[in-house]
């Protein structure tokens, strides 16, 4: 199944499942959870139903998880990206955090801030946690996934490189695109040979199979849950392939008017224009 979060025409927010050009408004059902995160927490994704249908064109999509408790991101998790950045090989995933208030939805603009023109693309597969836990065994880790989404970890590179800590360059407002939908593992199927593809203005700039991850999904979940409890609705962005704009000659920065797309096979396509900060 594929789930979305959205704002209705009257300004209220809800969540539901996609049915072609329509949304089954699960939030309209009597006694329904208040949002997608609450539905995941209740373990109700497979059982919720509703008779209310809304035209997809008549609602405004939100980040598929508008309110995650945690957003954990994995750096340099494809060998091609590690090599282009010159980073040393490591024995453990490189983890940094992103704030929930940086998230935007499919169709919303990624914002190039006034503070920099060095705005880069990073197409990624995002995991959404379904069953929480601490010190989750690697052998059990995949069963803790509620679903997958596309992510664009748009990065303000000069701010990222001010020091060895990534956080400033990864947390400008309007730079974390998440969506358009959450696809459950049964519908996603085996993702090993599925490619993470990023396109900028119609040109392919990143293209690599998920199987090329240095640290696979189960290891990422096991490692992160060893140092912090994972909760339903937490998001883990699993890293970007090589081809980022910063490592091209000359650098390829995103600018106002650009269109950036992240496509991951059955997970869908996340599309965002780029705009300058007002």
TrEMBL record:
Domain Fumarylacetoacetase-like C-terminal: start-end pairs: 70-274
InterPro entries linked: FAH (IPR051121), Fumarylacetoacetase-like_C (IPR011234), Fumarylacetoacetase_C_sf (IPR036663)
Listed GO MF terms: hydrolase activity; isomerase activity; metal ion binding
Bilayer-spanning residue ranges: none
GO biological process: carboxylic acid metabolic process
Family label: Belongs to the FAH family.
PANTHER family on file: FUMARYLACETOACETATE HYDROLASE DOMAIN-CONTAINING PROTEIN 2A, FUMARYLACETOACETATE HYDROLASE DOMAIN-CONTAINING PROTEIN 2A-RELATED
Protein name per UniProt: FAA hydrolase family protein
